[in-house]
Design goal:
Blueprint: E1 11-13, E2 18-22, E3 25-37, E4 43-51, E5 60-66, H1 77-83, E6 88-92, H2 109-123, E7 128-138, H3 140-150, E8 157-161, H4 167-171, H5 179-186, H6 193-204, H7 208-216, E9 231-236, H8 244-253, E10 258-263, H9 277-293, E11 304-306, E12 316-318, E13 324-331, E14 335-337, E15 342-349, E16 354-369, E17 374-382, E18 389-397, E19 403-418, E20 423-429, E21 452-465
Parallel strand pairs: 5-6, 5-7, 7-8, 8-9, 9-10, 10-11
Antiparallel strand pairs: 1-3, 2-3, 3-4, 4-6, 11-12, 13-21, 14-21, 15-20, 16-19, 16-21, 17-18, 17-20
Helix pairs in contact: 2-3
């Protein structure tokens, strides 16, 4: 049951109900623009789509759409209009976004209170079935949905895309923040003072306990084992912000009906939507039709779908994550350098095509001195023809460490095709900029003047699919 809200949620019509026109014909739904008033006085701009005609006796099943950080509800119009002939669909600008007021605290308690209020407002509408409300969210929106679910908002079914289950491990793996990604995500966003207070710490990988506490309040993974709500996870094959590990961990933890789709979309270096958007939306609609409308659905025997790259029109289905094997590559050489230097080593050409699937790791002997604070590894592949591919990258925080150590750097968990005949290059430095000035994932840090690192040979363990999905 929904706990009492103790809040006033009022809808004010901002535009009359109008019929949409698509492809030269009247659509099967109507829409109205609204303002939803939160209990702290902040207004959230929203749009409600509803199927034409009278609602069924129990009311329309409904879906709430949650956009990503720095985006707005208009960017979800494609999804709303695809589904609004069957469901009532509510999209809204999160606080600090679009036409809404307020400031962004990145799915903190205030945004979860908003989520609860938006759910309650929709459930109270007489034409909506209060027992059949689902949620769809991307990135920031997906994080809000998962967190609200573990905090008791009674969603009937969820779908989340390109999001996190553990915010700290997503943005600060091995205690080194993806500073460039954090900068890109927060730039131009109206941040709450609580976020502003830790922004520089997040960019500089310092005050890590405070960052962990901030992230824990916005994460769901530790509580997902209690969740029996049906959840469909959509995650990008090549998403360097929220990688495959975030969805894999959530999938393993969930106790209820669940599916996992690994697709051709995501944050940089991918985009959303991707070439498989029609398949993604068809999968999503079928999921909601089953759990909100009780439409028949075959037993979930093959719950994991992996799309090929490039997209060929159909994803491969698996009972479990497809098996992998490790390819070992040694990058020989020794390098010593200061803050602006780098080690860049190239191995021989690959004799076969590989499809990376999982988190690669780099093991390297290092001697650190003078306060050397981080080591970043970027793995690239140069095909015989075409552009260089960034296969994966990662880094490790070495603040407070000196002397000789064996470092193991875990790279982003992704799925990347490496063509036959490619040469692999490993770049080791203090930032991803050393590999390419356009690679902004790990920004260049401020190092002490006397900081220095010496690196020996590096060993790469590269997980690849035993049977490739992509042709």
């Amino acid at each position: 049951m929904m706990e009492p809200l103790g809040r006033r949620v009022v809808a004010v019509l901002c535009a009359s109900v109008i019929a949409l026109v698509a492809s030269g014909r009247a659509s099967a739904f109507t829409r109205q623009d609204l303002m939803l008033h939160m209990d702290d006085g902040v207004d959230l701009a929203a749009t409600l789509y509803e199927p034409n005609g009278a609602p069924p006796p129990q009311g329309f099943p409904a879906i709430v759409l949650f956009h990503g950080l720095g985006a707005s509800r208009q960017q979800l119009d494609l999804i709303a209009q695809r589904w609004a002939d069957t469901f009532a669909v509510l999209s809204f600008d999160a606080r600090g976004h679009g036409q809404s007021g307020g400031l962004v605290s990145v799915d903190g308690p205030r945004e979860i209170a908003d989520t609860r209020a938006v759910y309650a407002w929709l459930a109270a509408r007489p034409e909506v079935d209060s027992q059949a409300i689902g949620g769809w969210g991307i990135s920031l929106g997906g994080g809000a949905l998962l967190r609200s679910l573990v905090e008791g908002v009674p969603w009937k079914a969820l779908e989340v895309a390109n999001t996190w289950s553990n915010l700290y491990s997503a943005l600060a793996p091995q205690n080194l923040t993806k500073s460039g990604a954090i900068y890109a995500l927060t730039s131009g966003v109206k941040l709450d003072p609580a976020v502003q207070a830790i922004e520089q710490d997040a960019l500089r990988s310092r005050n890590l306990d405070a960052l962990r506490q901030f992230a824990a309040q916005r994460s769901s993974l530790s509580m997902l084992s209690r969740v029996t709500t049906p959840v469909y996870l959509f995650q990008g094959r090549r998403d360097f912000v929220f990688d495959l590990a975030q969805a894999k961990a959530a999938y393993r933890a969930l106790a209820g009906p669940k599916k996992l789709y690994l697709g051709d979309f995501g944050h940089s270096p991918s985009t959303f939507p991707g070439p498989d958007i029609d398949a993604v939306l068809a999968e999503g609609k079928a999921w909601f039709e089953h759990w909100l409308l009780h439409a028949p659905m075959p037993p979930i025997r093959y719950p994991i779908h992996v799309s090929p790259d490039p997209w060929t029109g159909k994803a491969r289905a698996f009972k479990t994550l497809p098996p992998t094997r490790n390819v070992k590559v040694v990058f020989r050489g020794r390098n010593s350098f200061s803050a602006r230097g780098k080690a860049q080593r190239t191995a021989g050409r690959l004799r076969t095509r590989l499809e990376v699937f999982g988190s690669a790791s780099v093991r390297v002997q290092a001697k650190l001195s003078g306060g050397w604070a981080r080591v970043v590894a970027v793995l690239t592949a140069k095909p015989r023809r075409g552009k260089t591919i960034v296969v994966s990258e990662g880094g490790i925080n070495t603040s407070g460490v000196s002397g000789k150590h064996t470092l193991t750097i875990r790279l982003i968990d992704d799925a990347t095709v490496i063509p036959k005949g490619s040469t692999l290059t490993l770049t080791l430095a203090s930032s991803s900029l050393a590999q390419d000035p356009g690679n902004l994932l790990y920004l260049d840090p401020t190092m002490p003047a006397g900081a220095k690192v010496s690196l020996g040979p590096a060993q790469l363990a590269l997980p690849v699919l035993r049977k490739p999905v992509s042709r």
